[in-house]
Design brief:
Rossmann fold; alpha/beta
């Protein structure tokens, strides 16, 4: 079974995303604390991370910086990454591209299309 970490400082959003993905058969863990999620990745490498762009982290300014840190892990290149954002600048898009973020999803988003995207990424 594929494992997904859902990281969003809005606890309800992390829970909703994790619950929805669990109904698709994934093992989905919600995290409100980005640093705790990263610490867990040192013990259990997820197949996919859904990361809020604006979340606070000790590893940089935002969720994109934490995605860069994830990519630096020994198995970090195999983790699929999705950034969630209410608004994203061209500079943030460029940062995501440089890091190798797989998808950027703008909130609010269509849940059905989001789940299809997750399924597609995890089948690659």
């Amino acid at each position: 079974m594929k494992t997904i970490f859902c990281v969003d400082d809005a606890e309800i959003l992390a829970d909703i995303i994790a619950s929805r993905l669990a109904t698709e058969g994934y093992i989905a863990h919600p995290f409100r604390d980005a640093d705790l999620a990263f610490e867990m990745m040192l013990k259990e490498i997820p197949d996919l991370v859904v990361m809020d762009r604006s979340i606070d982290t000790q590893y940089g300014d935002d969720g994109i910086a934490l995605c860069k840190k994830i990519r630096e892990l020994p198995d970090g290149k195999r983790i699929k990454l999705i950034i969630l954002s209410g608004l994203i600048s061209n500079e943030d898009r460029e940062r995501c591209e440089e890091i190798g973020v797989d998808e950027i999803v703008i909130k609010p988003y269509n849940t059905k299309k989001f789940v299809e995207m997750v399924n597609r990424l995890l089948q690659q």
